[in-house]
Input
Amino acid sequence: MIGVLADTINSDIVPLWCKKVSKWHGNFLGLNDVSLELRPGITALLGSNGSGKSTLMNLIAGQLYPDAGFVRVYGIDPWTWQGKHLVGYSPDLDYFYSSWSIKDFLARMAYLAGIEGKRIPNLLKEVLSVVGLSLVQSTLLRRCSLGMRQRAKIAHAILMDPPLLILDEPFRGIDPVGRRDLVQLLLQLQSAGKTILVSSHELEEIEKLTNQVVMLRSGRIVSAGPVSRVRDRLLNKPVEIALEIESVEKIRMLAQTVLNHSDVLGVRFPEGKFHVLMVLTRKPEIVSSHLVVVSLENNISIRRLEVVDEAPAEVMESLFEG
Amino acid sequence: MGEIPVIHCRNLTKKFGPKTVLNNVSFEVYPGIIGLLGPNGAGKSTLIKLILGLDNPTSGDISLFGKTKVELAKIGFMPEAKAIIPSMKGYEFVAYAGELDGLKRTDALRRSHEILDCLGMGESRYRKLGEYSTGMIQKVKLAQALVHDPDLLILDEPTAGLDPPARNQMLDYLTYFARQQGKSIVLSTHLLGDVQTVCDQVVVLNFGVCLASCSLEQLVGNKSDSYLIEVAGNQIDVIAALGEKCLSAQDMGGFTKVFVRCGSSAEINRITSLVLSFGGVIKKFVPLEGNLDDAFFALLDKQRLAGN
Amino acid sequence: MAVNSLNSFLEYRPWNGLRNPAWMGAFAIMRESLKLIFTRKVFWVVFSLAVLNFLLYFFGQYLFFWVADQQPDGLVRVGGFGRANQNDMMQFLRSVLKMDGSPETFRNFINLQSRGIIVLLVLAGASLLGEDLNQGSLIFYQSKSGGMKNYIGGKFLAASFLVHLFATIPALFLFLEICFIDTWTYLLYNPRLLLGIIGYGFVINLGLVSLLFATVGFFRSTIGLIMCWAGVFFLLPSLCAIMIDRLRLNPVLRILDFWYCVERLGEKCLGASPTLLPGQTDQALNPWFAVASLGFVFTVTSILTMRIYFKQGIES
Output
């Protein structure tokens, strides 16, 4: 669960707690008074380009220090070395030496992170098998596909087995197979009890991962929570129900009948689709049931009945546009 | 179909040294939007290069619009790489691309402005490309592919890195150019969702083998005799009453997903009235359609099993 | 339905006008590449130095002719050191500073100007060519009707234009200047010199530009280019000097010195008397050896260029 919280909190047990965080890049306000709390599980961070997603992720990963407010990971500031041990970060761009192999890269990172030399080979074996790179571990990074590089970055993020993972745009440019594997990997990490914050533009993938979203816009959190609640809060407007029936002739007659219902705000015939009637309402459940009843009474067969814009991806798209 | 295929490949094979990148690929596609799908290393980019005539196949041949000789003037190509000159202004770059395709300077500038207008690029066309956002760069790249009015557009990852509104807009433009302007578009992408939204035909490649080339419906399939009904509350008695009509049911907490099979419309009416008679509130009633994701992975799995 | 969602929609228009032949694209590429170079500061710095040098020669020649026209018998005060005979002084100046329209004048001038070209190409060459390789833009040029031939052609024209802008064109101006301040018979007596200037210009053009294409293709970054060209223009001459002047090896080894060969060939084009490098012990190199050396460099760099650019485009 996520939410924007009261001032006092038992922050030691909360994976991530940001309070009134702001960050400027010179004169440019990157992040503006953001308060956020994450609970275990996967949370998606959504927003257009330049909305401050990467800034927020950098702050949480301890790569930047907030100009105002504070960030706590299990009660510890991620800017400190103790805090950094608790956060695994996979940046959006490839910041590694492309002439190293995956294994060399991870081994050197493990060494830099202060892991004993003796423990490194075993640790690498374990981490590589988690991300599914065991068979290709000696491939040079510059020869890796984007999917393999993303997994190498995630392997780097989970080297220290941190409870909180920050993944910036892990799906960018990956092919469908790599995408599917990555979704599997993230779900697997989630079931291992990690807290994961992932940003992405590809809403279909997010839809497969989680129902919890945080929407950023112009450096501010506009909404946070489950998709349906986000929608209700942000788009305070009536929904449309699409009803598709078999017979074209009866559709206007049906529309007239439907208009008699007090919860129906209006009806519309979409251009070029003669079988479809769009019904506008604020109470979709009552009205959709009513539509079924009316159709049955008039002996009209239904082909399809659904609330438009209800799938999480569609809701999120309309949020981006709205 | 009596039409001339836009692209017709016959037994196309391409080898780089010992490595076979394309292995006996044959397909034909017709005007419309054609999705070119395949994981990394499937041979998509090699195929595109062969279509553009930048490289010769080891064996086999390609014909475009029924002709074996590739006319680059009839093809517009939008590369995946950034491929821009950062110090150039947007409209200059598009005009430059036009000149490279043989337009006169004046024509090129006029076409450049026309197309940028059409793509909804306002004053930003007078800014330098280096200052553009990803969405704007993709638009400029689309414009440079269109400037010489080609019949065939080949787009390599046009929606990569775009946020959802920009992505939808790009897809809208693609449908516009295909449906209203009669262009044929080859869309090579990793985003299966885009293909499902806009494409009529798909070509699936993997490890240099063509796994499928057919219309989208054919690949995805349509199980139109199965329906999904969402009923509010937990509806154990409804499910029991449906008996064997009910394929499966799932309690989602708050509502129940019931999958049913019904062949005729009379049967649909019978089922809905049955649900209503138990006092069930129907939230949703949709036919189950195939999904490109599933179809695509099924193809890949089939190939893997055949290989083993 | 899709169109409605696109705001401010102006309808797309088909186009079916006349097209230029495909090779005309090379000129567009040349124009845009030159624009790229002209926006660089380094161009203007090197260019102003080159202009200064040109002005030195321009007014220097004028002065020489003017002084020669004065009364030849007077004595001239030279600083505080007493008086010198004017004729003697002119003789001395001519022997030190060649600014009298002789072949040596043009050789010295073009040699100096080409130093400027080298500096310019080494510093701006990466932005002329390297960016396209790094960004994977070659596929963009390949997919246009002219293809890679236009790209190589256009970039070659752009680089050649720079070479001639710095060396050949100002040298021709100096030639013309002498025609004006001396007599037009100068032109009649020296047609060889006129052709020689143009010839030397093209020797520098082919040599430097082919070297630029190959090295940029190979190194791609300005730093790599500087290292490589420093090797060619500083290390190779010193190496040759050590081998021939100190170790007394076969003087033909001088053909390794790329830039010496270029200058030697230019000398031959202009018909100037051969000069020796500082400390040079052997005779000046036989120009045919220089031709062979440059031909070899040109062939190798051309093959490299073709391989790098065409292959890169196809694999990227």
Observations:
- The mean pLDDT of chain B is 86.
- Chain B is about 35% helix and 30% strand.
- The radius of gyration of chain B is 24 Å.
- Residues 201 and 214 of chain B are 6 Å apart (CA to CA).
